[in-house]
Amino acid sequence: MTESHPDPRYVHLRLHSEYSIQDSILRVDEAIKAAKADGMPALALTDLSNVFGLVKFYSGARKKGIKPIAGCDVWVAPPESSDKPTRMLLLVQDSTGWRNLCELLSRAYRSNMHRGRAILQPAWFDAASAAGLIAL
Hints:
The protein is 27% helix and 22% strand. By secondary structure, it is an alpha/beta fold.
């Protein structure tokens, strides 16, 4: 006997909001409202290089019955290639991942700013600092 599965639903995993000031003007409340109208069971907020909007997003999504997924679109480059960073999406899997994301972002802002960008270095990712994170 096979289990029946509900219809697959789309879940937006890369969403930038008004807090991603370089590339979006979408308000958090509007994103949550649209996700609810579209029947999304979950939604990720992944602003560029910051997590400023996550408290507002998390509480707003929960109130509307949508599972909030925390994340961040980050710049990554080794020191010799800081002029050509690439973007990587990091999604938080658990509380360890949340702490690790905050640590990585803080480290980039404190010690690796280049041309106005907080850039993570590949060498910073080891088993401990990547725990609880999903990289896309």
